Amino acid sequence: MDEQALIRRCQTGDVKAFEPLFQANIHMAVRTAYLTTHDWARAEDAAQEAFIRAFQKIGSFRLGQPFRPWLYQIVMNEARRLMTKAPKTRGEIPEEIRAPEKEMPEEAILERERLSLLQKAIQRLKDEHQMVITLKYLNKCSEAEIATVLGVPQSTVKSRLYAARQKLTEIMGRAKEATQ
Amino acid sequence: MEIDDKEIEMALEALPAWKGSPNQMWQKVEGGIHHRQTKGKWVRLAWPAAAAAAVLFGVWFAKPAILPKADPLPPVAHETEPPPPGPASAPGHDGSGRMPSAYWFDQTLPIFVARTDSIVLGQVVSEQDVQSPYVDAHKDITPPPAGHPKAKNWQPPKFEPWPTKLYIVKLVRLFKGERSQTGETFLVEQRVPSKRVPHVGGGDDSFMKVGTTYLFLFSPQVERRYEGAEPVRLFEASGQVRFAVGPDGKLQVNMPIHTRYTAIRELNGLTVDQAAEQLRAALQQ
After folding, report:
1. Which residues of B touch A51 (CB under 8 A)?
2. Given B99, B125, B234, B271, which residue has the most CB atoms within 10 angstroms?
3. Which pLDDT value is given to residue A29?
4. CA B74 – CA B33 distance, rounded (Å)
């Protein structure tokens, strides 16, 4: 059954129809939340709450709209809400990131460090920038989909992505200077 | 070097994978959805009932509130007891030896606080013996300004511990501005010979509100010392109580108040015991 048909059933209150939507998105939802919480337990809490809220709000979901960016937006908001409630528990992303394997170990280490820095830089972006970056690069949503879900013109999404990249370049530049 | 799409993508893809169990999580989500649906149903059903109940209760409780309130004080004992004749020279005395009847009050109330232009009636919540620093009010507690003839020989006065009664009093009624209204002055103290009548310090009554609890200090020994003296002078030439309540609602020391009986500001949520404890601590400093 396709996604839109499942959503239609969910809108009639059919919880069972929500399960396939859940199963298809849970991994990405928890990872998306993890980007904000940096803690698996909290990321799970945020994702769990986001799915419950998504089902509650699914009545307002317009059929034909992309579902994934709509869902991940809820996940990100939920993760942020959770962290606002308990900001002290926010930690750093552990050094368990999977850097692409390279032939030279030294190169791999440098690559890993750079990616880690970039992740931290993304965490420091302001909400609207982090939202578009996450939706586009982690959740693989198109700019048109993001625009529809955020209710802004596609040009705004483009300009936010541009501004976010500029900010990332700036943060990375400063981080590089600090390490030298 | 500008960060490009590829790098961002790689950084985000390098985020660790979630290793939890989707099935377990689904059970929680499903449970959560059912729970909220049930709760929502109850809320939808319950709120009209709750609203109706609230209206009924509101009407029930509002009824006495909109009726005229009974006077919380015992009946004023007008003319039930003839006032003792005051000296003809005393301010406020009209020459007849009687004080205006409106100023009489029921002395069965456990405590009354009086001063020259106001009468404060209150109920004692608590009474404790403490030691308060005392200094003769004739002594200057603050140094005279430089160049003043007294400045040369001025020495800070010594404060002696003085047996003091600490009262926590709930204010029941406050008569204020009677003098200006009637154009008369009167000395309440003359009509209230009991030692149980402390006085409100100068200006202290300006902040007082009925229904609020205040702290009073009363030094019976000082009272005895000045017994028989002219009451207003007694009030002015009194001991020293160095306590007040700061903006944080806590008792503070070193805020001299030139009155023997000082109504310390309202307790601001402190219990009687807490206030007494703070006072004791302040006295020990």
Report:
1. 29
2. B99
3. 92
4. 61
Q: How far is A89 from chain B (nearest CA, A)?
A: 19
Compute the average pLDDT of residues A32-52.
Answer: 87
Can you spell out the DSSP letters for B211-231?
T-EEEEEE-HHHHHHTTTS-H
Write out chain B residues lying below 8 Å of A166, CB-based.
Answer: 2
How far apart (Å, rounded) are the C-alpha atoms in residues A72 and A46? 11
* Selected residue of A37, A48, A102 to mutate for chain B interface (largest B Cβ count, 10 A): A48
Q: Hey, CA dihedral for A97, A108, A170, A173, is it positive or negative?
A: positive
Grouping H, G, I as helix, E, B as strand and the rest as coil, residue B151 is helix
SS3 B57: helix
> Which one-letter amino acid corresponds to residue A157?
V
The confidence score (pLDDT) of residue A121 equals 86
Query: What is the DSSP-derived secondary structure letter of residue B147?
Result: T
d(CA A18, CA A30): 17
Are A10 and A18 contacting, i.e. CB atoms less than 8 angstroms apart?
A: yes
Residues 6+ apart with CB under 8 A from A120: A92, A93, A175
Question: What are the helix and strand counts (H, E) for chain B?
Answer: 7, 7
C-alpha span between B9 and A180 (Å, rounded): 26
CA angle B213, B215, B221 (to 5 degrees): 145
Q: Do A165 and B2 touch (CB under 8 A)?
A: yes
Residue pair A82/A45 in contact by the 8 Å Cβ criterion: yes
Nearest to A52 by CA among A24, A26, A87: A26
Q: What is the pLDDT of residues A73-114, one digit of tens each?
A: 899 888 888 887 765 444 444 444 444 444 556 777 777 778
The answer for residues whose C-beta is within 8 angstroms of residue B253's C-beta and 6 or more apart is: B242, B243, B282, B283, B285
Q: Ramachandran region of residue B16, left (φ > 0), alpha (ψ -120 to 50) or beta?
A: beta
Distance between CA atoms of residues B27 and B44, nearest Å: 25
pLDDT of the residue at B7: 85
pLDDT band at B64 (very low <50, low <70, confident <90, very high): very low
ipTM: 0.80
**Buried residues in B116-139 as b, exposed as e (16+ CB within 10 A):** bbbbbbbeebebeebebbbbebee
CA B81 and chain centroid, separation: 31
The answer, yes or no, to whether residue A131 has pLDDT greater than 70, is yes
